[in-house]
């Protein structure tokens, strides 16, 4: 089973997680820029975070043969803090980077006017930089938030096929499916979505435009739930090809729209650089 | 390594017109390098260049963009490094010895050597490291040994290695032996060469 996790916050995970993910078949990940738990108080703090997403984190992933890509954005939660707003002006230089395959996570948290503004501005950046967009949906007032999200996406002029609307559930799936956007599902131990519920949704709605992610972060989450979902699909009678479509080909197709998803030599990627070896696997001296 | 040999080795890149245009453009419009530099990997590829061992197309293209600038090389190198991803940073480090900047790029070497990214450490210990003071240079060599960066990346290794580096390597070897571990083979060889060259005392 080859797995592409299209949404996981590896910054919050340990190196042991990379090792377990690689052993479970995870060969590529996309790490969306998001909130870190502790609210940030300046744009400079974001710069270091974004630099890590395109520098240190891909190196760390590479130790285990995992390809690491990122999406960059000012997240909706911190878009509400005027001290963080200057981040919007820093985004263009990051959207030019090789491993940045979308603008994200953008969208709504509390549906404030500040979030409206940041959301629209960043959808415009996605259009200007010819990148897909990863859109977070709010955890509170989700159904109405989803509705409003789709209206803003439609208004922005971005092609619906270049947008994934994430963290969906039984209540929001149909709305997004009818919009033409891609559908993201975050499989959590017991909240957003579970492997079993996911299997039911795949039965009902099919495998087209469906993206399954672990969204693992600093909270209670599990980077191996992508694999668990693949196994639940097989147990429910889905074929190996269905699993490969959902867990590999779909995310490759979605993020491949960036023109930057370089998955060549994936088998040879076990070492970051064969000339230089590494310093993490051995743990130094 | 010279810009001319890098340019010749890049003859077969997927999109040679892009590179030609980009190199001409930065001579008259230097600020254009800000967006050309990150795009170089996508436009020129990242394949190894057989004519210049140890070089890839993206590194070579980015180095040429920097050497093609009409001036302010140190300022551009610093900004492109600070705003670069790991591949861009590596290219800036490799360009430093080919730029007319004297020792102005040394702070970038210090930054790279502070990281644990072996790609950056390896690029920082090449020819431009002649501008590092001896203490910083020894620490960088030890960091290579410690983190598994092959010592073949270290420029002027045998001529620059001194008694203090020998002592540091011997101490690391002793620490490893005490733990039932060995130095990497290239470091062990270096230690043997250095101790063999020392005058013997009774």
UniProtKB/TrEMBL annotation, chain A:
SUPFAM superfamilies: Metallo-dependent hydrolases
GO terms, molecular function: hydrolase activity, acting on ester bonds; metal ion binding
Keywords annotated in UniProt: Hydrolase, Metal-binding
Keyword Metal-binding in record: yes
Matches recorded under InterPro entries: Metal_Hydrolase (IPR032466), TatD-like (IPR001130), UCP005295 (IPR012022)
One family name in Pfam for this protein: TatD_DNase
Superkingdom of source: Bacteria
PANTHER family: HYDROLASE TATD
Family: Belongs to the metallo-dependent hydrolases superfamily.
The protein's name: Hydrolase TatD
Organism encoding this protein: Micromonospora arida
TrEMBL record, chain B:
Record keywords: Isomerase
Entry-linked InterPro entries: EboA_dom (IPR047715)
Taxonomic superkingdom: Bacteria
Entry's Gene Ontology molecular function annotations: isomerase activity
UniProt-recorded name of the protein: Sugar phosphate isomerase
Organism: Micromonospora arida
Lineage: Bacteria, Bacillati, Actinomycetota, Actinomycetes, Micromonosporales
């Amino acid at each position: 089973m080859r797995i592409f996790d299209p949404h996981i916050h590896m910054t919050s995970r340990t190196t042991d997680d990379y090792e377990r993910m690689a052993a479970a078949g995870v060969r590529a990940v996309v790490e969306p820029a998001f909130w870190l738990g502790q609210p940030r108080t300046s744009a400079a703090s974001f710069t270091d975070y974004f630099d890590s997403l395109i520098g240190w984190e891909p190196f760390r992933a590479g130790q285990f043969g995992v390809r690491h890509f990122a999406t960059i954005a000012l997240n909706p939660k911190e878009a509400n803090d005027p001290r963080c707003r200057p981040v919007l002006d820093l985004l263009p230089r990051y959207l030019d980077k090789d491993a940045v395959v979308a603008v994200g996570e953008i969208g709504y948290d509390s549906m404030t006017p500040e979030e409206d503004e940041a959301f629209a501005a960043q959808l415009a950046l996605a259009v200007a930089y010819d990148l897909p967009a990863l859109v977070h949906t709010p955890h509170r007032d989700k159904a109405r938030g989803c509705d409003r999200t789709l209206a803003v996406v439609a208004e922005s002029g971005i092609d619906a096929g270049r947008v994934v609307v994430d963290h969906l559930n039984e209540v929001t799936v149909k709305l997004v499916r009818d919009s033409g956007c891609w559908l993201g599902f975050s499989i959590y131990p017991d909240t957003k979505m579970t492997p079993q519920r996911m299997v039911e949704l795949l039965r009902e709605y099919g495998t087209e435009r469906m993206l399954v992610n672990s969204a693992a972060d600093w909270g209670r989450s599990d980077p191996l739930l992508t694999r668990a979902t693949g196994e639940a699909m097989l147990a429910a009678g889905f074929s190996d090809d269905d699993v490969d479509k959902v867990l590999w080909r779909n995310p490759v197709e979605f993020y491949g729209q960036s023109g930057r998803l370089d998955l060549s030599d994936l088998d040879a990627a076990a070492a970051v650089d064969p000339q230089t070896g590494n310093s993490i696997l051995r743990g130094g001296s | 390594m010279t810009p001319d040999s890098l340019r010749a080795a890049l003859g077969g890149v997927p999109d040679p017109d892009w590179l030609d245009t980009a190199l001409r453009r930065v001579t008259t419009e230097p600020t254009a390098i800000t967006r050309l530099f990150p795009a170089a990997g996508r436009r020129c590829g990242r394949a190894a260049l057989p004519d210049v061992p140890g070089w890839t197309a993206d590194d070579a293209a980015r180095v040429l963009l920097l050497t093609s600038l009409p001036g302010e090389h140190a300022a551009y190198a610093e900004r492109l490094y600070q705003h670069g991803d790991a591949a861009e940073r590596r290219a800036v480090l490799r360009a430093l010895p080919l730029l007319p900047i004297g020792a102005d790029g040394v702070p970038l070497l210090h930054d790279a050597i502070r990281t644990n990214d072996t790609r950056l450490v390896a690029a920082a210990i090449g020819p431009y490291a002649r501008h590092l003071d001896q203490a910083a240079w020894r620490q960088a060599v030890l960091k290579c040994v410690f983190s598994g960066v092959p010592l073949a990346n270290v420029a002027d290794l045998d001529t620059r290695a001194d008694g203090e580096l020998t002592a540091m390597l011997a101490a690391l070897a002793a620490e490893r032996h005490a733990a039932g571990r060995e130095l990497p083979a290239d470091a062990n060889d270096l230690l043997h060469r250095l101790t063999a060259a020392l005058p013997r005392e009774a």
